[in-house]
Amino acid sequence: MDCLFCNIINNKIEKKLLYSDDYVEIIMDAYPNTDGHCLIITKKHYNDILDIDDDVLKHISVLTKKISLSISENINVDGITIYNNYGFHQQIKHYHQHIMPVYSEQVGIKFLQKANSNEINNNYLLIKKSINDFVKKEKIEKNINN
Ligand SMILES: [Zn+2]
Predict the structure, then answer these.
(1) Number of domains observed in the structure of the chain
(2) 121 alpha carbon – ligand 1 mean position (Å)
(3) How many helices (H) and strands (E) does the chain have?
(4) Which of 9, 51, 99, 130 has the fewest beta carbons closer than 10 A?
């Protein structure tokens, strides 16, 4: 099966990687709606929300909370929209969840049209740094607690 996201996970396609663990990778969306629009993609191929293992879905939810906290604290955003498409709007049939920073100047107008990530991802390095700092801090806290 030729799946775009499996190819991304297997490093057959270039990506801007933000985070990786045993279950997921977080990458910048190649065609973002807003600056910093990123995707959580499962390492294992699940078709969609009806197909994904509950434990992996829970992991993604908790990770989403942490990443959202990290982005809100480190980047000048006015909000974050989190969504997953199933069925008609799901273009790539490999489970993925969107994390899309929202900027107030865009609210009420419309989100940016899909753009090439190189054009609008001014926050890529900032987001990557905030996530990496967060993961480092978590590891340190884990070590302290253990
Ligand atoms: Zn796949």
Answers:
(1) 1
(2) 25
(3) 4, 5
(4) 51
Count other C-beta atoms under 10 Å from residue 2's C-beta. Answer: 6
How far, in Å, from the CA of 79 to the mean position of ligand 1?
30
Q: Give the pLDDT of residue 91.
A: 92
The Cα–Cα gap between 129 and 146 comes to: 26
Neighbours of ion ligand 1 (CB under 5 A): 3, 5-6, 45, 94
At 105, list the tokens. 């100047």
87: alpha, beta or left? (left if phi > 0; alpha if psi -120 to 50): left
- C-beta separation of 19 from 135 below 8 A: yes
The CATH number of residue 38's host domain is 3.30.428.10
Residue type, 124: Y
Tell me the whole-structure pTM to 2 decimals: 0.83
Range of the domain at 100: 4-145
Spacing, Cα 92 to ligand 1 middle (Å): 8
Residue keyed to tokens 């967060």: 134
Summarised one tens digit per residue, pLDDT across range 91-114 is 999 999 999 988 877 655 455 556
